[in-house]
Amino acid sequence: MEKNSSGCIKYWILICGILSVVFYLFHDLIGARAYPGYNWMAQAVSDLTAVDAPSSDIAGRFSHIHGIFSCVTCAFIFVVAKTLWNKASEKVLRLGIYLFTIMHWVSAIGYSLFPLTGSGYDGSFQSFVHVFVVTVLVVLLSIVSLILISAGGFKSGNKVLAWLAAAAFLLMFLGAAGSSAVPKEYFGVVERFSTYSAVVFTAVLAVCAFAKFKEA
Q: pTM value?
């Protein structure tokens, strides 16, 4: 019975991880089609779900589904992490995975409750929480979790996961730094380095957990 339960969780992790990326792409691509004049090279992904955006309804639906799959994926991995990465040398790696899971829940709940308007920060309580509470927490948790997963992965011999976490962190950093360095007409391009790095790494973590079940 225990083996069957583990096998079921293994496939759910993989499926939910992949679907989280698919629905984020839908939110970006289909949302852009519902936003007349939207320029993905110049505008942020978050513009699509702004409360006053013409694409808010359709993009928001896909974004919520993405958030559900991301949270479910990480919740499953959170539960089985101690079984899959059970060595003493993998303690730092597990801690990184736990923080990455918390980041997804903070992001999914926080941004749903406190979305921005299309004009960005407008001084309201909603905007304040979005920018200075939710965003700060998400950024800090993302950075710390990816560093811990990378460092813990190298320390414990999980080198593939470690390199991929390092790559996700680098892309996130390039996106954040590039957002203020590139011309405005390319803001959306570099901004997507940050957003997609966390989204894709969720699927990467799901695939690595799926593969790890064979060793556990």
A: 0.91
